[in-house]
């Protein structure tokens, strides 16, 4: 990567684009709705159960002009979901500014491990034990999505629920490879603690991206 390109990436005028696709949102509050997903490469949070580990190394994904990402997105949907990797690794100001100028509704799926940049209509915070969210993301999160892999994750979820704002919707979501084991635990937990809701990866049941 040339220094010129690196500078543009640092400014958010180019981003390491892994993939972009139009599909149905499978998780959380907006599940079942059509959205255009923009997956940005680069993540150092390192979840061992991550199902897109190929997104971790930013250098594997070509720096792409933000204008090109926006031009592609506006052909398909008014709802854009920026995901990763960890999109907040990069400055999201330019991307969201351009999407807003096109009248888009912009969502982000983030671990919250880095400072919040950009202007968002919906923030899905999915915190990880390895690298906790910044306070700014806790304060502005619209939904908290805690992944349940084992029993200790319920304790972690309650710790995270204490840190988000009072309007944040609380979700527990089974880790896909452990779903047969943890779904009954989640059902029992939500029935005993109804402030929580169940989130499922419905796109995997639908066999879509």
UniProtKB/TrEMBL annotation:
GO terms for molecular function: 4 iron, 4 sulfur cluster binding; carbon-nitrogen lyase activity; magnesium ion binding; S-adenosyl-L-methionine binding. The lineage of its organism: Bacteria, Pseudomonadati, Bacteroidota, Flavobacteriia, Flavobacteriales. [4Fe-4S] cluster binds at residues 43, 47, 50. Signal peptide: none annotated. GO terms for biological process: tRNA queuosine(34) biosynthetic process. Binds 1 [4Fe-4S] cluster. The cluster is coordinated with 3 cysteines and an exchangeable S-adenosyl-L-methionine. Homodimer. It comes from Lacinutrix venerupis. Pathway: Purine metabolism; 7-cyano-7-deazaguanine biosynthesis. Keywords: 4Fe-4S, Iron, Iron-sulfur, Lyase, Magnesium, Metal-binding, Queuosine biosynthesis, S-adenosyl-L-methionine. It holds the Pfam family Radical_SAM. This is 7-carboxy-7-deazaguanine synthase. Its EC number is 4.3.99.3. Its cofactor is [4Fe-4S] cluster; Mg(2+); S-adenosyl-L-methionine. Coiled coil: none annotated. Residues 30-209 form the Radical SAM core domain.
